[in-house]
Amino acid sequence: MNTAPNQQQEQQKQSRDPAVWPTFQAHDAIALIDFLVDTVGFLRTAVYHDEDRVAHAQLDWPEGGGIMLGSYDPATKSWCLEPGTFGAYVVTDHVDALYERLTAAGVRVLRPIEDQPYGSREFAIADPEGNKWSFGTYRGEPRPAE
Protein backbone atom coordinates (compact mmCIF):
# COMPACT_ATOMS: atom_id res chain seq x y z
CA MET A 1 0.00 0.00 0.00
CA ASN A 2 1.32 3.43 -0.98
CA THR A 3 0.90 5.86 1.94
CA ALA A 4 2.79 8.81 0.41
CA PRO A 5 0.48 11.69 -0.54
CA ASN A 6 0.37 12.30 -4.25
CA GLN A 7 1.53 15.62 -5.63
CA GLN A 8 -2.02 16.89 -6.32
CA GLN A 9 -3.12 16.18 -2.75
CA GLU A 10 -0.04 17.94 -1.40
CA GLN A 11 -0.68 21.02 -3.58
CA GLN A 12 -4.35 21.17 -2.49
CA LYS A 13 -3.31 20.98 1.15
CA GLN A 14 -0.86 23.84 0.72
CA SER A 15 -2.94 26.21 -1.39
CA ARG A 16 -4.71 29.15 0.18
CA ASP A 17 -7.34 31.62 -0.86
CA PRO A 18 -6.03 35.03 -1.95
CA ALA A 19 -5.45 37.18 1.10
CA VAL A 20 -3.65 40.26 2.42
CA TRP A 21 -0.34 39.52 4.15
CA PRO A 22 1.26 42.22 6.27
CA THR A 23 5.02 42.16 5.78
CA PHE A 24 7.95 43.65 7.64
CA GLN A 25 11.63 43.21 8.39
CA ALA A 26 13.60 42.72 11.58
CA HIS A 27 17.17 43.37 12.71
CA ASP A 28 17.16 39.98 14.46
CA ALA A 29 14.51 38.03 12.57
CA ILE A 30 15.28 34.73 14.35
CA ALA A 31 14.75 36.30 17.79
CA LEU A 32 11.59 38.07 16.63
CA ILE A 33 10.18 34.86 15.15
CA ASP A 34 10.93 33.05 18.43
CA PHE A 35 9.14 35.81 20.38
CA LEU A 36 6.10 35.82 18.09
CA VAL A 37 5.84 32.00 18.16
CA ASP A 38 6.91 31.11 21.71
CA THR A 39 5.48 34.12 23.57
CA VAL A 40 2.63 35.54 21.48
CA GLY A 41 1.32 32.32 19.93
CA PHE A 42 1.82 32.57 16.17
CA LEU A 43 2.50 29.31 14.33
CA ARG A 44 5.87 28.89 12.60
CA THR A 45 4.60 27.81 9.17
CA ALA A 46 7.73 28.45 7.10
CA VAL A 47 11.18 29.91 7.67
CA TYR A 48 13.61 30.05 4.74
CA HIS A 49 17.21 31.00 5.39
CA ASP A 50 19.76 32.62 3.10
CA GLU A 51 23.00 31.86 4.90
CA ASP A 52 22.72 33.76 8.24
CA ARG A 53 19.64 35.79 7.30
CA VAL A 54 15.96 34.93 7.21
CA ALA A 55 15.02 35.33 3.56
CA HIS A 56 11.32 34.74 4.23
CA ALA A 57 9.19 33.59 7.12
CA GLN A 58 5.48 32.93 7.29
CA LEU A 59 3.82 32.90 10.68
CA ASP A 60 0.14 32.02 10.88
CA TRP A 61 -2.24 33.23 13.54
CA PRO A 62 -4.06 30.13 14.86
CA GLU A 63 -7.48 31.80 14.44
CA GLY A 64 -6.77 32.94 10.87
CA GLY A 65 -4.50 35.17 8.83
CA GLY A 66 -0.79 35.56 9.17
CA ILE A 67 2.28 37.67 8.60
CA MET A 68 5.44 37.48 6.55
CA LEU A 69 8.81 38.79 7.66
CA GLY A 70 12.50 38.55 7.00
CA SER A 71 15.87 39.93 7.95
CA TYR A 72 16.35 43.63 7.42
CA ASP A 73 17.98 44.42 4.12
CA PRO A 74 18.76 48.12 3.57
CA ALA A 75 18.71 47.46 -0.19
CA THR A 76 14.92 46.96 0.01
CA LYS A 77 14.36 50.22 1.88
CA SER A 78 12.40 51.72 -1.00
CA TRP A 79 9.47 49.36 -0.46
CA CYS A 80 9.99 47.78 2.94
CA LEU A 81 9.51 49.29 6.40
CA GLU A 82 12.38 50.02 8.74
CA PRO A 83 12.48 47.47 11.57
CA GLY A 84 10.36 48.57 14.50
CA THR A 85 7.89 50.61 12.43
CA PHE A 86 5.33 47.87 11.75
CA GLY A 87 1.88 47.78 13.36
CA ALA A 88 -0.90 45.23 13.12
CA TYR A 89 -4.26 44.42 14.61
CA VAL A 90 -4.86 40.73 15.35
CA VAL A 91 -8.36 39.38 15.93
CA THR A 92 -8.75 36.85 18.70
CA ASP A 93 -11.61 35.32 20.64
CA HIS A 94 -9.19 34.73 23.52
CA VAL A 95 -8.14 38.31 24.24
CA ASP A 96 -8.25 38.08 28.05
CA ALA A 97 -6.24 34.85 28.18
CA LEU A 98 -3.70 36.24 25.71
CA TYR A 99 -3.35 39.47 27.69
CA GLU A 100 -2.83 37.52 30.88
CA ARG A 101 -0.20 35.28 29.26
CA LEU A 102 1.72 38.17 27.64
CA THR A 103 1.74 40.33 30.76
CA ALA A 104 2.89 37.32 32.82
CA ALA A 105 5.73 36.90 30.31
CA GLY A 106 6.80 40.50 30.89
CA VAL A 107 5.90 41.78 27.42
CA ARG A 108 5.83 45.58 27.18
CA VAL A 109 2.18 46.67 27.22
CA LEU A 110 1.44 49.86 25.29
CA ARG A 111 -2.27 49.94 26.06
CA PRO A 112 -3.90 47.87 28.82
CA ILE A 113 -6.85 45.67 28.03
CA GLU A 114 -10.17 47.46 28.02
CA ASP A 115 -13.54 47.51 26.33
CA GLN A 116 -13.84 49.94 23.43
CA PRO A 117 -16.93 52.00 22.56
CA TYR A 118 -17.18 50.16 19.22
CA GLY A 119 -17.68 46.83 20.95
CA SER A 120 -14.16 45.43 20.95
CA ARG A 121 -12.12 44.32 23.93
CA GLU A 122 -8.46 44.92 23.13
CA PHE A 123 -4.93 45.76 24.22
CA ALA A 124 -1.61 46.65 22.57
CA ILE A 125 1.99 45.54 23.05
CA ALA A 126 5.40 46.21 21.55
CA ASP A 127 7.58 43.37 20.34
CA PRO A 128 11.35 43.34 21.08
CA GLU A 129 12.06 45.36 17.89
CA GLY A 130 9.46 48.02 18.73
CA ASN A 131 6.69 46.94 16.34
CA LYS A 132 3.22 47.60 17.68
CA TRP A 133 0.64 44.82 17.97
CA SER A 134 -2.99 45.29 18.95
CA PHE A 135 -5.10 42.27 19.86
CA GLY A 136 -8.85 42.41 20.15
CA THR A 137 -12.22 40.89 19.53
CA TYR A 138 -13.31 43.34 16.82
CA ARG A 139 -13.65 41.42 13.55
CA GLY A 140 -14.42 44.42 11.36
CA GLU A 141 -17.72 45.45 9.89
CA PRO A 142 -19.57 43.20 7.47
CA ARG A 143 -18.92 43.95 3.80
CA PRO A 144 -21.64 46.03 2.13
CA ALA A 145 -24.00 44.11 -0.11
CA GLU A 146 -23.13 44.37 -3.80
Automatic annotation (TrEMBL):
Record-linked SUPFAM superfamilies: Glyoxalase/Bleomycin resistance protein/Dihydroxybiphenyl dioxygenase
All residue ranges annotated as the VOC domain in the record: 18-138
Top-rank taxon: Bacteria
InterPro entries documented for this protein: Glyas_Bleomycin-R_OHBP_Dase, Glyas_Fos-R_dOase_dom, VOC_core
Listed name of the protein: VOC family protein
UniProt source species: Streptomyces yatensis
